[in-house]
UniProtKB/TrEMBL annotation:
Entry-linked SUPFAM superfamilies: RmlC-like cupins
Family: Belongs to the cysteine dioxygenase family.
Alphabetically ordered keywords of this record: Dioxygenase, Iron, Metal-binding, Oxidoreductase, Thioether bond
Gene: LOC111603373
EC number: 1.13.11.20
Catalytic reactions of this protein: L-cysteine + O2 = 3-sulfino-L-alanine + H(+)
Pathway: Organosulfur biosynthesis; taurine biosynthesis; hypotaurine from L-cysteine: step 1/2
Transmembrane segments: none
GO MF annotations, alphabetized: cysteine dioxygenase activity; ferrous iron binding
Reported cofactor(s): Fe cation
Record's protein name: Cysteine dioxygenase
InterPro entries: CDO_1, RmlC-like_jellyroll, RmlC_Cupin_sf
Bound cofactor: record note: Binds 1 Fe cation per subunit.
Cross-link (3'-(S-cysteinyl)-tyrosine (Cys-Tyr)): C123-Y203
Length: 239
């Protein structure tokens, strides 16, 4: 096959569709690529991510590498780190031209998320400060299109089976955790009752709704909001 034809096929890829399909097989890197580019700062990371997402074809392994390579520097991310006394916060750092979202999440002492999915997107989570624990659960009734249609019809009904925990993993500073819906659901918590935690999250494609799950398997749609954008507190009607 001629190289020009290959290039043309790559140019015609639907990026969002491709990224969602990639969640069916991608499982994450354990360490940075041996010959991958270095990232020296948060601005460098953001620039490198924009370059990666400029093309229709996104090398998701390279995105993973970039998140692994960046080393936390509080001077760079402190302006985005907005805490709330009562709940963890989601603070938008970069909207990725609509192709990805880069966020800083701030976790007060003992704060945790609900068990949730990721709307068939990729989720990379890098620790910047403190430690988090990720509890992972089997995705209820995860299957083919017929199963998914049935789930949509029955999303408000109680499932016969409780959520099944399949992992409980600490995430120390500068480590990167990865999840997609093919790998399961998760719940993230700050286990410390004396120290706060800060994490950097990349979602691609970005999404504004997901589903949260109760212990009995009941699935509830949830709107995804931002506590702040670009270091500025969001108004309630702009979240």
């Amino acid at each position: 096959m001629a190289l020009s034809k290959i290039d043309g096929e790559i140019d015609n890829i639907d990026q969002e569709k491709y990224l969602r399909q990639a969640t069916q097989y991608y499982c994450a890197l354990e360490k940075p690529l041996k010959f991958g580019p270095a990232v020296d700062s948060l601005p460098d990371l953001i620039s490198a991510l924009h370059r990666e997402f400029d093309a229709n074809y996104v090398n998701i392994e390279m995105v993973n590498h970039l998140m692994l390579t960046y080393k936390s520097n509080p001077k760079e991310w402190r302006k985005y780190a907005k805490f709330d006394r009562y709940t963890y916060t989601r603070n938008l750092v970069d909207a990725g031209n609509g192709k990805f979202n880069l966020l800083i999440l701030c976790w007060g002492e003992g704060h945790s998320s609900s068990v949730h999915d990721h709307a068939d997107s990729h989720c990379f989570m890098k620790m910047l400060k403190g430690e988090l624990r990720e509890k992972r659960y089997r995705y209820p009734n995860r299957g083919g299109e017929d199963d998914q249609q049935q789930q949509q019809q029955d999303q408000q009904q109680i499932n016969d089976h409780e959520l099944v925990e399949i992992g409980d993993t600490p995430i120390p500073v500068n480590d990167v955790a990865y999840i997609n819906d093919n790998l399961g659901l998760h719940r993230v918590e700050n286990p410390s009752h004396t120290d706060t935690s800060v994490s950097l999250h990349l979602y691609c494609p970005p999404f504004d709704t997901c589903s949260i799950y109760q212990n009995n398997g009941k699935k509830i749609p949830a709107k995804v909001t931002f506590w702040s954008k670009y270091g500025v507190r969001s108004k309630a009607n702009e979240q």
